[in-house]
Amino acid sequence: MSGAGAEVAVGGAAVGELVGSRTVRGWIVDPVSEREGPGEIRIGDGVIRGLDWLDSPGGADIRADGVLIAPGFVDLHTHLREPGNEDAETVASGLAAAAHGGFTTVCAMPNTTPPADDPAVVGRVQAAADASGSPVRLVAYGCVSAARAGEALAPLGELADAGVVGFSDDGAPVRSAALFRNALLYAGSLGLPLVEHAEDPALTAGAEMHDGYVATVLGLRGWPVAGEVAAVARAVALLEDVVRDEPRARLHLTHVSTAAALAIVRDAKARGLPLTCDVAPHHLALSDEWVAGSRRWAWEAVDERGRARDPWADGALTASPYDPATRVNPPLRSPEDAIACLAALADGTADAVATDHAPHTVVDKDVEYGLAANGISGLETALGCLLAAVDAGRLTLARAVEALTVGPARVLGARVPVPGIRVGDPADLVVVDRGTAWRVEPDALRSKGMNTPLLRRELRGVVRLTVAAGRIAYTA
Length: 476
Fold this sequence. Notes:
By secondary structure, the protein is of the alpha/beta class. Helix 4 crosses helix 7, helix 7 runs parallel beside helix 8 and helix 8 packs parallel to helix 11. The N terminus is likely disordered.
């Protein structure tokens, strides 16, 4: 392994094998203790036996840009496609992709076929995880409404008894305000969050990409910021009404993508509402100019005043336009919105990063832009996007790790343990070689979904070892 102070051997172990006696040494980031620095972790029989912070001179050769050791990542938003669309992803392939990306816990979204509006479907997903042999922990959301149709509540109590960690109709918003309100009340009484996909379909119907200058030039139908802002405002108003009657109600807004919507979230949090939100890696690092063929990071697409540059005027268009891999819901936004997402993550307005991993088959993606299925396959590239932001000075390493670990765990509550590095606990760790880059190629991905605009790009930060619950989940 390259990188300063690297002293970890990771080869020769099988997936699912209990970690034997080994020592990992590098730059440790532990968001639970709020400490980072050079250190050494001793593991025996899958359990953390010792943690030593190495002060100078013992740790003088270990740098933050060398070997990174962190708690295993938690993804709040993973589409595993099973049951019903196993050609795009299975639980087994999704968990393999998660481990390759450094994730040791993933939350399966309920928009499967059939949807997870029945405890039996939740059981099928959990059984598939058990059969996969992967030690990556899978937890699941249940649907808010029966068949995700938005007309009647799903059996939330039965789904809670089946072990779901929250409720969502993701892929679509909860259309009825009355049903949304009732769901907040019921979910609150069960001690579980309602996870909302904030979109007003009346404003987004037929839209193909973010509404703005790039869409106008490309001749694509625009997806207005108001389509997200209106839905966020409605959700916050309903939450404010509900908490008067049910103070345990909790609302989580997923993949928030615009500066205006984040401003509403920031204000609601300042008023003490029980509201959390996440942002997706592609909304932090990419922007709408990628649809035109740009391949620069979002922070490179703004000038010194923070205003979007013209990609046609400054030679940023290096790839073919209309790449369907860039089509996602919510769409890739303006560079200014991406910078706002980064700022919200940095200041805590956004509680977590969630991948919104959405694998699709070639049949569903390799079509005319406006007909392509929405979604980016993101479990394996999320870390690379965040580390690029860290390297650009847009985010601290500690905050990036926190947003991938304790942030999402705290959103989920007691049903998911808060990741940390504690002596006596089963090892749940990721070891990353920050000094090495890897190329995003189809044969380098474990997911069945190759639908990412990051294909052929080099990302810094190679995951060398992922350990989940004391067992090897991935090793390179």
